[in-house]
């Protein structure tokens, strides 16, 4: 275990010994409980004399678990997180060519879902020195062409103004979707993300706080009509909620749609993973709370994204005072990474920088605050197995690099 006494040593990026000589802890999200649940899929269907299908026993259990956690409503498991966004946008039946306001820092899947449905993404800026958007940033971009706001809860932290955004939009008949892919179980004002807007999309791929395997996702809503539309858009237009529905009669299907199902094995993994979500969140919160406080006490130039105390940490943005260092932010963060610390030195998920998306955007709006936030920060990777040793090593690496580059 390293300490800040190593600060006087040469940087690893310059040939010195790294602070941490072993890998950061692997997450190993597929544990014994997940394995037991995968086995249970086999044994349950074997006892029934059946092969696993879709919309089956384990998906029902998984969705019930989610709904109970969320405080009621409806959920449907789907194949991927991008699919969850595609399905919720489809379920709203927004006017073709209308504008969907979208957060400035997000995954390409968010933009792809909007574009593939014949809608126009319109970027909104972030709050100053933040990855998330805010109320003022959203309302500044609303006009007569706006049909929907897609608010992304980035880095595991809720959009702090989400309640205000929803209230403003509902008064104007504008739909609000929440992308909760990076923020499973995060809260704001005591409420879970995903419960504010009309619908919510979640990714459950292997790096998320709760998983269903390599890929996965689910949709959530408290609106039964939207739920029915989502079911149909995720399953070839089938109106499964109708009592007289015959799965063998395609004449009853409502519209063209793809088969976007989750598997029974994925849902069984999801059940196991979701059950330990509270522990996952607690352990991650404990790590970032301690790290944030120690940075505040020990660093002259670095600070963590302020926590709301109810986050579900996915990664942790670390901000660097560029006026106090003799190098670029990228050089600084790469030097920290060379000390054996897992991180993303330059988060490239700033939408306005992607060449392929330019012709689809509603306008050429520049997200100044989002770019400033990205350019002044790097993203520290973390998981629920980071403990005191990792805390000491991260601090030692940061302080070692800081001492070398500080003016």
Short description:
This protein has 407 residues and is of the alpha/beta class.
Describe the structure.
36% of the residues lie in helices and 14% in strands. By secondary structure, it is of the alpha/beta class. The chain has two domains: 32-275, Aspartate Aminotransferase, domain 2 (3-Layer(aba) Sandwich); 277-405, Aspartate Aminotransferase, domain 1 (Alpha-Beta Complex), CATH 3.90.1150. A hairpin with a 2-residue loop joins β6 (187-188) and β7. α3 runs parallel beside α4 (108-116). The longest helix is centred in the C-terminal third of the chain and has 22 residues, at 277-298. The radius of gyration is 22 Å and the shape is globular. The model is unreliable at 1-7 (pLDDT under 50).
**Helix and strand composition category:** alpha/beta
Strand fraction: 5-15%
- The termini sit apart by 28 Å
The radius of gyration is 22 Å
Helix content: 25-40%
Instruction: Give the full name of the CATH homologous superfamily of the largest domain.
Output: Type I PLP-dependent aspartate aminotransferase-like (Major domain)
What is the CATH class designation of the largest domain? Alpha Beta
Q: Give the H and E element order.
A: HHEHEHEHEHEEEEEHHHEEHEHEH
Spans of at least 5 consecutive residues whose pLDDT stays below 50 are 1-7
Name the average pLDDT: 97
The CATH architecture assignment of the largest domain turns out to be 3-Layer(aba) Sandwich
The side-by-side strand order for the widest beta sheet comes to 1-9-8-5-4-2-3
Extended strand count: 13
């Amino acid at each position: 275990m390293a300490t800040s006494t190593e600060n006087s040593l040469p940087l690893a990026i310059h040939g010195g010994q790294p602070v941490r000589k072993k890998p950061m802890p692997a997450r190993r999200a597929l544990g014994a409980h997940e394995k037991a649940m995968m086995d249970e899929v086999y044994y349950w269907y074997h006892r029934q004399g059946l092969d696993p299908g879709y919309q089956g026993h384990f998906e029902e259990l998984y969705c019930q678990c989610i709904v109970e956690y969320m405080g009621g409503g409806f959920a449907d498991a789907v194949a991927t997180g991008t699919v969850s966004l595609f399905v919720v946008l489809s379920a709203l039946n927004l006017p073709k060519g209308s504008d969907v306001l979208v957060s400035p820092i997000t995954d390409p899947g968010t933009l792809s879902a909007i574009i593939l449905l014949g809608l126009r993404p319109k970027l909104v800026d972030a709050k100053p020195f933040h990855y998330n958007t805010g109320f003022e940033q959203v309302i500044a971009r609303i006009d007569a062409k706006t049909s929907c706001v897609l608010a992304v809860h980035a880095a595991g932290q809720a959009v702090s103004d989400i309640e205000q955004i929803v209230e403003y939009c509902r008064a104007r008949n504008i739909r609000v979707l929440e992308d909760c892919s990076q923020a499973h179980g995060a809260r704001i004002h005591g409420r879970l993300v995903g419960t504010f807007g009309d619908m919510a999309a979640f990714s459950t791929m292997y790096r998320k706080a709760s998983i269903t395997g390599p890929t996965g996702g689910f949709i959530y809503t408290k609106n039964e009509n939207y739920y029915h539309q989502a079911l149909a858009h995720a399953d070839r237009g089938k109106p499964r909620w109708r009592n007289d529905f015959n799965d063998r009669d395609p004449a009853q299907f409502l519209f063209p749609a793809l088969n976007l199902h989750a598997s029974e094995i994925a849902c069984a993994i999801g059940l196991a993973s979701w059950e330990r979500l509270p522990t996952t969140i607690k352990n991650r919160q404990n790590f970032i709370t301690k790290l944030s406080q120690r940075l505040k006490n020990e660093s002259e130039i670095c600070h963590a994204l302020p926590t709301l105390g109810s986050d579900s940490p996915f990664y942790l943005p670390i901000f660097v005072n560029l006026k106090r260092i003799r190098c670029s932010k990228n050089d600084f963060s790469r030097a920290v990474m060379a000390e054996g610390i897992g991180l993303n030195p330059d988060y490239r998920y700033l939408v306005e920088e992607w060449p392929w998306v330019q012709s689809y955007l509603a306008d050429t709006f520049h997200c100044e605050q989002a770019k400033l936030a990205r350019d002044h920060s790097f993203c520290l990777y973390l998981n629920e197995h980071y403990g005191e040793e990792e805390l000491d090593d991260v601090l030692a690496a940061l302080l070692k690099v800081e001492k070398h580059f500080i003016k």
